[in-house]
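Subject: sequence -> structure tokens, single chain

Hey, anyone have a minute? Need the predicted structure for the following. Not urgent.
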Amino acid sequence: MDSVSFKQFQNNLQDCVDRVVDHHNPLKVTDNSGSDFILVSAQDWEQTQETLYVLQNTDLMQQISRSLATHATNQGYQLSPQELDEILGV
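Reply:
Had a minute. Here:
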């Protein structure tokens, strides 16, 4: 994660925001008083919140674990040709 001083952030606000949004790389802004903060794009924030929700949801994590186990042993649900055609819009 890149880091800039608060003064640099003030002087280059638009550039800092553009870099964070365009490159999806958070930016740590520091000042002399120790009141640091992180600038992150709204899209990245929302994705992080969704990930945290899934990780904290025991039922979802168990379902993912079961799905990974059946996939690894090739025992997961197999689509019929008709279902595959419907999904692909054929």
